[in-house]
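Re: weekly structure request thread

Next one in the queue (127 aa):
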Amino acid sequence: MSDDCPCGSAVPYEECCAPLHRGGAAGTALALMRSRYSAFALGLEQYLLDSWHASTRPPGIDLDGDTEWRRLQIVDTTHGGPSDDAGFVEYRASFRSGGQPGLLEERSRFIRVDGRWLYVDGDAQWR
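Done, posted below.
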């Protein structure tokens, strides 16, 4: 793996998403969104479950090992800052699966519980 974070922040992984993957708390909904994208790219199923709100979290995740997450583009954020308790992040994530390109577009909803941001759900479109 290169030193660059998979989330595309232009910050090294060890300074960007790795601390969150090791149990640190995201300061914003956007930071959690980026760390979740990186977790998909790196196959960190447990992190994805741990950062998902209990009310909507599935019992498990079966990540497709054939999917290569290629690029994250943040489209918009609404609230989700350090002093907020809820927020939305709209993004586009490009990938390749089975040799075919694809695009996931989602407006994700996040809430903060006991000081920790959690993914709740999203309105997703797969292309």
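The first helix runs from residue 18 to 21. The chain has a mean pLDDT of 95.
Next request, please.
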